[in-house]
TrEMBL record:
Keywords: Developmental protein, Disulfide bond, Extracellular matrix, Secreted, Wnt signaling pathway. GO terms for biological process: canonical Wnt signaling pathway; cell fate commitment; neuron differentiation. Pfam families: wnt (PF00110). This is Protein Wnt. It is found in: Secreted, Extracellular space, Extracellular matrix.
């Protein structure tokens, strides 16, 4: 789910979530290869959408009565409605449980104390927050003769395309960061039996924004995607097997949308003509009871980067 949405959202960019099929042959650790080791905006987007995909999937499974996922009680809008009058089948999308599960699954596998580690955890969290932020409220009316005497309401995860759109918008506004000084905080240690609890000072790792022409040190927002490394503007233009970059040669682009010059990195692009086969066209109903369709072949063309 996350991979398909990544490809959809990045279709008009020089890097379109492409993968090299033989990644493991080159000793690369995941489907995107070593690219996820870089601290660039594309990596930030990828990490966030992976985290969002895990969160959304778990939330959806909660609705299908996932064994380990507790059900949330349905909210009743009208205070005059009898308690437990309506029992809705299944469970809600338990976003709190889903976010916690995704955090344990992804965050705990990472180790470190450097800017890469802090940025990775930040972008994972941004992905989880995107799922929560885009959740929508659904309500069901109850009452006699179609009236809405009271309603039961619940929250559902939005379509993953909507979540992807939010993350793509954050990608276009990604914030460059560097590692700041550790921040000292006081954390209350949970008391055990017979213990009143105590407070312990703890140092947490910190990110600060890199802002040109400013001496202020400000922290990125939790909704920001963050990166810490700059690469040249043509980094994705040519094939780089080591970094799992396929380049943009032979990429299909949209001349009418004006993105061919960008995707092709200023190189020329050509027009390719091809035949499109539609196996079901001009369908008609024949009495009785059959639907007959024709096979239509149309000439089409597309723009391809040289």
């Amino acid at each position: 789910m996350a991979l398909r949405e990544c490809e959809r959202q990045m279709a008009t960019e020089r890097w379109n979530c492409s993968r090299i099929a033989a990644n493991y042959q080159y000793g690369q650790p995941n489907i995107f290869g070593r690219l996820l080791w870089r601290g660039i905006p594309e990596t930030a987007f990828t990490l966030a959408i992976i985290s969002a995909g895990v969160t959304a999937s778990i939330a959806a499974e909660c609705k299908r009565s996932l064994t380990c996922c507790p059900c949330h009680l349905t909210q009743v809008d009208n205070s005059g409605a009898p308690q437990n009058a309506i029992t809705r089948p299944g469970c809600d999308h338990n976003i709190k449980f889903a976010k916690g599960f995704a955090k344990r699954l992804l965050d705990k596998t990472e180790k470190g104390r450097d800017v890469r580690y802090i940025s990775l955890l930040h972008n994972y969290n941004t992905g989880r927050r995107a799922v929560a932020k885009t959740m929508k409220k659904r309500c069901l009316c109850h009452g006699t003769s179609g009236s809405c005497t009271y309603r039961t309401c619940w929250k559902e995860v939005a379509s993953f395309q909507k979540i992807g759109q939010l993350l793509k918008m954050q990608y276009t506004k990604a914030v460059k960061v560097m590692q700041g000084s550790p921040v000292k905080i006081f954390k209350t240690i949970r008391p055990s039996l017979g213990d009143s609890g105590r407070r312990r000072r703890r140092r947490i790792l910190n990110l600060v924004k890199v802002e040109e022409h400013s001496n202020r040190l400000t922290r990125p927002r939790r909704s920001d995607l963050v990166y810490y490394e700059n690469v040249s503007s043509d980094f994705f233009c040519e094939r780089q097997t080591y970094w799992s970059v396929l380049g943009t040669r032979q990429r299909i682009c949209d001349a009418h949308g004006g993105n061919c010059s960008h995707i092709c990195c200023g190189r020329p692009y050509r027009t390719e003509y091809y035949k499109h086969v539609d196996e079901k066209c001009n369908c008609r109903f024949i009495w009785c009871c059959e639907v007959k369709c024709e096979v239509c072949i149309t000439d089409k063309h597309r723009k391809v980067c040289s």
